[in-house]
Amino acid sequence: MILSAAVLLAAALSAQAPAPQAAVETVVRRFYTTYSSGDLDALAALWEPGSPSLPAFRSEMTPLLRSRCLTLHQVTFDSLDIVNEHATVKLHVLLSKSGPTMPERYDPHSAIMELVRNDDGWRVTKWTLGEEAFAARLLAGRSDAEREAMLQAEPRLVTPALGRSLCKLGVLAANQQRFDDAAALIKLGRRVAAMIDDSTGLSLAIGLDSIFERLRPEGDAARSLQLGYEAVDLAEEASDPDAISRSALRLGGNPVRRRPAQRGADLDAAVVRAARRG
């Protein structure tokens, strides 16, 4: 009798406790609900405090969460693996962002999240943008044809976030004088922007091309300058204050710049408009 009661109690407690997979999914959904609310401190509270990845995550998210209104539309789980006290989740997230003078635009991304279970439940230990990993794989492709095949094979990863990741890698490559890599990343950035009709992404790719022309030994200074102006114009057409300020400041810092007075005034005005929009 006592044994039967103990078994029934254990079964009842087990039924009340969420299965590990359900518990992980709940934490991930709470993570993105908090992410879209813009509350960085509450988002950081979902992390394992000692995670070495947390400081970089906070640094990366601070400008976005404090200056943009985010709306979460959907979270789709691609895979969820649990081994002992560790979980790895791959997911696709549909978000949109807007600003005071920036129209709402969809900005989906994929992510890989790692979590660990402790006495308080599941905590995040690492968050990686799926597009960042894909950008690195694209760069490692052996030819333009192979890279194109990779893009066609992964349509859900062809997003504005991929364009940003490619251009981030491209700036690093150009500054490190890895000019072959930079040229490949410029081509990829332009291709991704064309595939999804992303004016902001095209502005980023053209801005990277401007940096490339300025830094490479056989670069064309006049072309670098022209590309810089094109990047600003595209960013303004997209009404994206982040892209406007980035492209305008890069152009303003171009040491070969010899701008006509009117273009100079236009550039200064672009910086002011971006600051007001932000």
Unreliably modeled segments = 5-17, 270-278
Distance between the termini: 69 Å
CATH topology of the largest domain: Serine Threonine Protein Phosphatase 5, Tetratricopeptide repeat
Name the assembly state.
single chain
Structural class, please?
Answer: alpha+beta
Please state the overall shape, judged from the principal axes of the Cα atoms.
globular
Largest sheet: 5 strands, antiparallel
Helical region count? 12
Mean pLDDT, as a whole number?
86
What is the element string, with H for helices and E for strands?
A: HHHHEEEEEHHHHHHHH
Rg value: 23 Å
Number of strands: 5
CATH C-level category of the largest domain: Mainly Alpha
Into which percent range does the helicity of residues fall? 55-70%
Q: How many domain modules?
A: 2
**How much of the sequence is in beta strands?**
15-25%
Looking at the overall shape, the CATH architecture of the largest domain is Alpha Horseshoe
